[in-house]
Specification:
mainly alpha; globular; binds iron/sulfur cluster
């Protein structure tokens, strides 16, 4: 266990740097364990527990440099939050599923649990990094310490974890932390952001270009293909928001809450998109703007921007088709509860 994630040593600061995938210490669990459904994100169907045909003998992806053009965009946006190396190197002590096929099924099941634990650690660590959430820090520390101890448990213990209950408990803490953080933003009623939470709201393809979404509660919101160019998302809570093909050119996500790398990797943006400090700019983002759409920073769209902290919910959903997903696949960026597929190097 990394020192800064050692509950015995105390937990301080933002430890999320330790919750990143290290493919060189993993046996490509994400390329084997989940099922894939052929879709815009995956070029093939693949049953759970079966190695992807692109996986080579050295646990590396043979098409890593061409994932997007070959139809494996889902692989390019997956993040295991470091669960892969934890399972391979800690839980199974460096034993791989090819050398020990009898334990392969168990290892894949453990990976699914571990990924959730690491994901929750990411969010808890972010909440702990927010000074405004100080009234909750004791509870957040406790939840993180207990979760970290689980990540070091044996396989049987991990498989016995009540994952939905743990997720729910953490989720409630995160919601409270979100309220505290967003309450400090300017413009909120009594310095408290509106409590309206359109969790899971459907804003597919919505025109939110240039919108003032500071401190907005966008948890679980479907923003697939939405136009958020130039939008101000500072302090917005994007926990579980689906940002596939969301246009973030010029948007400001500085201080946005609970954004993960998979969400950015699934979206579109450019060098002018302001990111939360713990995240990196996706390599596929370029400075090239879509010439078919006016830049909201230079051509504001009348009436496109809701007020601070409010989110317009369309009376009817756009008809955009939703990509197909496998129910057993952990690959959807629609929710941090189940982000996406592998990025095997
Ligand atoms: S990264 Fe994707 S395409 Fe490459 S081996 Fe893994 S699952 Fe297959």
């Amino acid at each position: 266990m990394p020192d800064d994630l050692d509950p015995a040593a105390g937990i301080t600061g933002d430890a999320r740097g330790r919750l990143r995938a290290d493919c060189g210490r993993c046996f490509a669990l994400c390329c084997v364990a989940p099922a894939f459904s052929a879709s815009v994100d995956f070029a093939i169907d693949k049953p759970a527990g079966t190695a992807c045909p692109n996986l080579n003998a050295g646990f590396r992806c043979a098409v890593h440099e061409q994932l997007r053009p070959r139809g494996f965009r889902g692989c390019a946006v997956y993040d295991c939050f470091g669960a892969g190396q934890q399972v391979c190197q800690v839980t199974y002590g460096g034993r791989d599923w090819r050398a020990a096929p009898d334990s392969a099924r168990q290892m894949f099941d453990v990976f699914a649990v571990m990924r959730t634990l690491h994901e929750l650690l990411w969010y808890l660590s972010e909440a702990l990094s927010r000074p405004a959430a100080a009234p909750l820090h004791a509870e957040l520390h406790d939840a993180r310490a207990r979760t970290m101890l689980l990540t070091c448990a044996d396989a049987d213990t991990l498989l016995a974890v009540d994952v939905p209950a743990l997720r729910q408990a953490v989720h409630l803490l995160l919601l409270q932390a979100s309220d505290l953080v967003r309450a400090e933003l300017p413009g909120g009623a009594g310095n408290r952001r509106p409590r309206r939470r359109p969790r899971g709201a459907d804003l597919l393809g919505a025109n939110l270009a240039g919108a003032d979404l500071r401190g907005a509660a966008l948890q679980g919101t479907l923003l697939i293909g939405a136009d958020l160019r130039g939008a101000d998302l500072r302090g917005a809570d994007l926990l579980g928001a689906d940002l596939r093909d969301t246009d973030l050119h010029g948007a400001n996500l500085h201080g946005a809450l609970f954004v993960v790398q998979a969400q950015l990797d699934a979206a579109r943006g450019d060098a002018t998109t302001a990111l939360p400090p713990a995240l990196t700019r996706p390599v596929h983002w370029t400075r090239t703007a879509d010439p078919t759409r006016p830049d909201p920073r230079t051509h504001p769209v009348a009436g496109s921007g809701p007020g601070p902290g409010t989110v317009p919910i369309p009376s009817s959903s756009p008809s955009a088709a939703r990509p197909r997903r496998s129910a057993s696949s952990p690959r959807s960026p629609r929710s941090p509860r189940s982000p996406r597929s592998p990025r095997r190097r």
